[in-house]
Amino acid sequence: MPTMKNMPTVKLGVVGVSRDCFPIDLCRRRLGKLMAALKAQSVRAQRCSVIIETEAHALAALAELREKGCNAAVIFLGNFGPEGPTTIFAERFAGPVMACAAAEENRAVLANDRGDALCGMLNLSYNLNLRRLAAHIPQYPVGSPEELAGRIAEFVPIARVVLGLGDLKVFSFGPRPHDFFACNAPLQPLYDLGVELMENSELDLLGIFRRSQDKKREISARARDMSRELGQGNTFDDLLPKLAQYEVALEEFLAQNLGSRHYAVFANKCWPAFEPEFGFVPCFVNSRLASRGIPVACETDIYGAVSEYIVQLASLEPATLLDINNSVPADVFSSGESPDLKGASPRDLFMGFHCGNTASSCIMDGKIAYQVIMHRLMEPGQEPNITRGTLEGRLRPGDTTAFRLQATSDNELVSYIAEGEILDVEPYSFGCIGVFAIPNFARFYRHILIGWHLPHHAAIGFAKAGKALHDAMTLLGLQRIGVPQPAGMLYEGENPFGER
């Protein structure tokens, strides 16, 4: 699989804080043990030499971490901690911040060297709120060095999501069509997150593609690389030069238009006007860009592109965008078989499908094919031509996370997260497709996806990333994060009398 780029590297700095009526050496000793635990757990972090007791210390710590190139910070309460200087540090640090605190080691400590950091965390939280600051505070923020090292490791993907979104640019091409408007949404909330947007027309995209035709050497090299990737799945070798030209055009456009940002994703209109003008379906190119860390959302789904990128940041795996597409008939399983549904019920199953935008490393026996639905619309009764270019295959079985960030019609940002598995089951259908088993999905589908008026596209990860995603969305300030509720726990508005 190609190396995934297009993502920030988290560089952690750890700073201890000490209230002046507590011995500063207590904080130093405990910070030293925390740094040793981080090293033992292979968590890379820079120790700040400054222990914050005063505002002057806070400014010195900020300068030191900035000099060391740190873009995320962990505030460690070695004792109670000074509330004002600590929150000034959090306010002025240019990146996501986590807070945690030292537990008392043993009964001997209680006699004279008690740190009272359990108490200090309460007042730190209070003062963060006074300054309207958001910091990541883990589920159990007070612990031993080894426990806290594990929680700091869990902060890394959370910080990566926040840093990536704050330096992201979305390139979109084309508007949503009138009869397929589902993924259209207000864009103001993306600006509020710090995401930059550059909207373009389909004519812009066509011009970019045509102007790239003279790059013969690059196109030829890219087509050979496509052929190597596909192997026996290269069923339309004559199509590869066109696809290669499109890939070269998109990558060149990205490089020339990043501007003030370092990372980018695409949300491109891909049908029905695309095929007659370009002469192919762009899915395989979208797949290849996703494998290199540049998601390309189908059908101008801007929030879908951002959602894919968030899943990628959280999991460090290529993400894809799939329709939550169709129900699963019982006869996909062999007669008499009692399949392992991984904690889901038969009604919780669904098939995730798209034309073929998923990285080839995440599907089985991928091959270049044609889009069946487009073919019957555009080339009825003819051999496939302009509808070729999808990457078909069964989705790789294993852990999965379905996720979406979405703005509602009244500009509220909401999201959902659901973990489960892609089953090792033949879907007996076309496209890039797989059978998903997510426990308690049926009620989640009705009360979150339908109840919150969310579209059919889901960002799909090939790992369980729910914990990092939930904490990242919380840190970003989302008030509504939908998750599957277990039996006996009602959704808001759910009928308590059950089925009849």
Give an account of the 3D structure.
This protein is α/β, with parallel strands linked by helices and 500 residues long. The protein has 2 domains: 12-165, Rossmann fold (3-Layer(aba) Sandwich); 167-482, no CATH class. Helix content is 37%, strand content 21%. It has 16 helices and 18 strands. The protein has helices spanning 24-40, 55-67, 83-92, 107-112, 117-130, 145-166, 188-193, 202-211, 216-230, 240-257, 274-278, 283-291, 302-315, 372-378, 441-450, 466-475, and strands at residues 12-17, 45-47, 72-77, 97-102, 142-143, 168-173, 196-200, 263-268, 296-298, 320-326, 349-354, 363-370, 388-395, 398-407, 413-422, 432-437, 457-461, 480-482. The strands form 3 sheets. A 6-stranded antiparallel β-barrel has the order 10-11-16-15-14-17. The two termini are 50 Å apart.
Structure summarized in a few sentences:
With 500 residues, the protein is α/β, with parallel strands linked by helices. Helix content is 37%, strand content 21%.
Strand fraction equals 15-25%
Mean pLDDT: 95
* Order of strands across the main sheet: 10-11-16-15-14-17
Which structural class best describes the helix and strand composition?
Answer: alpha/beta
- Span between termini: 50 Å
Uncertain segments: none
Rg, rounded, reads 25 Å
Number of domains: 2
Q: Portion of residues in helices?
A: 25-40%
Biggest sheet features:
6 strands, antiparallel, barrel
Shape: globular
- Count of distinct strands: 18
Count up the helices: 16
